[in-house]
Specification:
The complex is a heterodimer of chains A (133) and B (359). Helices cover 23% and strands 15% of the residues of chain A. Chain A has 133 residues and is α+β, with helices and mostly antiparallel strands. In chain B, a hairpin with a 2-residue loop joins strand 4 and strand 5. The longest helix of chain B is centred in the N-terminal third of the chain and has 29 residues. Chain B has one domain: Orthogonal Bundle (Cytochrome-c3 Hydrogenase, chain B). Chain B is built from 13 helices and eight strands. Classes of the chains: A alpha+beta (133), B alpha+beta (359). At the A-B interface, helix 1 of A face helix 5 and helix 6 of B. The complex binds iron/sulfur cluster (2 copies).
């Protein structure tokens, strides 16, 4: 057909081939391993240092040392992964699965079992350390 | 002399998802002049540098544009690396080049789709975007994102692509190349498509230079200019010829971009064959102090970055001149003397990205 009606071939091919789209929701969407869906925390490892809160560009994370909790507003999170990179304990990760839409924003709160070192012993130790150093 | 009238085009117009406004001075159906105005979606990028530190700005820079997001992140990192005298590991350069060329591929396929949509060829629009979808899937596999990739960091990249992933991409691209050739042949050969593109919106090489056009707009007017030839990233190891055309019309701009699709596939192949096995990022310490200018070739043309740092974690200046901004004067030239019905198509031929323009 060449110059004349060059689209005809493709149109005919279309007619007899499978749809190019995934038949969602009948066929489930499979996400690749690296998909950045949402931020997860292994709260047992967290030391409530607050690095993630300070580095998060949109300020989605709140770390409450006194209340021993870590919370994230997934509606504000832009899935950039900077908190994951900054966390000294490597307890954050980004996994597949997006935040579902909702009528209003809310935070997910996670209790963190971390026990800080006894504050009473601390000043003496530091003083000793600085003397030696 | 016919009837003169001024018709406002945009900021809301069916052909563009983004707001640009043109005042079209018409004489009957002929456009005598077009006066552009922009500024509907200014987002205050530069003032954000007062609130976000230079590391967080990587993620902000990425969000300048949804299509060239990788390249914006990369150019910003390149500017900071230049200021801080950081040598990026070679593998990171190659990975950046591969992702950069994948961005070009999907940007040009997107543009072809929009062009087809612009002249009312819906089926062709769908086919171009079907092909583009596969590139987005590759992005998702390699970076975890389809639009915003967040893999750039100052000092390199954050994610590696292992050899089997790279080989798989090349295999997929080989398969796609045939399909892309079939689809793009329609743009180049179809009578109806040609009737909308050939000899429409002519801008000569001289005019293109005078008006400071960039990228495919410039190359379609026969001017050989491509920032990749400056050899950033891995481009100095790669063998490629700048694609130009002397026809100066809309057809030429289509032809140049189609040529670049195949060129990108070839560049990715070369990169995969040559990629060295080194680290992917270097550790960065200290604060930036100094000034840098970076020019990179984005799918739409040359982007220009100016970053000035003052030794604190907040930058002093951060200016970006995106390709669409540079192409608007050339656009007004192409619109002079055209038919009113061709205006949407001509606006599309510069591959406008208004969000980029206004930052
Ligand atoms: S998640 Fe990591 S960075 Fe955040 S407070 Fe816990 S230990 Fe620190
Ligand atoms: S992924 Fe980015 S936006 Fe989301 S919580 Fe982490 S740092 Fe904040």
């Amino acid at each position: 057909m060449g110059q004349f009606l060059p689209f005809t071939k493709q149109a005919l091919k279309n007619l007899f081939s499978k749809p190019a789209t995934t038949q969602y929701p009948f066929v489930e969407r499979v996400y690749p391993e690296r998909t950045r869906g949402h931020v997860d925390i292994k709260n047992d490892d967290c030391i409530l240092c607050g690095m993630c809160m300070r580095s998060c560009p949109p300020g989605a994370i709140k770390v409450d040392r006194a209340g021993k909790s870590w919370s994230i507003n997934r509606f504000d999170c832009i899935q950039c992964g900077y908190c994951v990179e900054k966390c000294p304990k490597k307890c954050l990760s980004i996994t597949a699965g997006y935040q579902e839409p909702g009528p209003e924003k809310f935070s997910y709160k996670v209790e963190v079992p971390y026990e800080p070192p006894k504050p009473a012993a601390k000043p003496a130790n530091i003083a000793a350390a600085t003397k030696e150093g | 002399m016919g009837n003169r009238s001024v018709v406002p085009f945009g900021p809301q117009h069916p052909v563009l998802p983004e707001p640009i406004h043109l005042d079209l001075v018409l004489e009957d159906e002929k456009v005598l002049a077009a006066i552009p105005s922009i500024g509907f979606i200014h987002r205050g990028l530069e003032s954000l540098t007062n609130k976000k530190d230079f590391n967080e700005m990587v993620y902000v820079a990425e969000r300048i544009c949804g299509i060239c997001s990788f390249m914006h992140g990369m150019s910003y990192c390149m500017a900071l690396e230049d200021i801080m005298n950081i040598e990026v590991p070679r593998r990171a350069d190659y990975l950046r080049t591969i992702w950069g060329e994948m961005s070009r591929l999907h940007s040009h396929l997107l543009w072809l789709g929009l062009l087809a949509d612009g002249f009312g060829f819906e089926a062709l629009f769908m086919h171009s975007w079907r092909l583009r979808e596969k590139i987005l899937d590759m992005f998702e596999v390699s970076t975890g994102g389809r639009v915003i990739f967040s893999v750039n960091t100052i000092g390199g990249v954050l994610k590696d692509m292992p050899a089997d992933m790279l080989n798989d991409f090349v295999r997929q691209l080989d398969e796609m190349e045939k399909e892309i050739r079939e689809t793009t042949a329609i743009f180049l050969d179809d009578y109806t498509v040609k009737s909308r593109l050939v000899d429409v919106g002519i801008i000569t090489g001289e005019d293109a230079i005078r008006r400071g056009a960039v990228g495919p707009m410039m190359r379609a007017s026969g001017i050989n200019v491509d920032m990749r030839k400056n050899g950033y990233g891995a481009y100095n190891d790669i063998d490629f010829e700048v694609i130009t055309s002397n026809k100066c019309d809309s057809y030429a701009r289509c032809e140049v971009r189609i040529g670049e699709i195949f060129q990108s596939i070839d560049i990715i192949r070369q990169c995969v064959a040559k990629i060295p096995d080194t680290e992917i990022n270097t550790k960065v310490t200290g604060m930036p102090n100094g000034e840098s200018i970076i020019r990179v070739e984005q799918p739409r043309g040359e982007a220009f970055y100016h970053v000035r740092a003052n030794g604190t974690k907040f930058l002093d200046r951060f200016r970006v001149r995106t390709p669409t901004f540079a192409n608007i004067p050339a656009l007004t030239q192409t619109l002079q003397g055209c038919q009113y019905g061709d205006v949407p198509l001509l606006v599309l031929t510069i591959d406008p990205c208004i969000s980029c323009t206004e930052r």
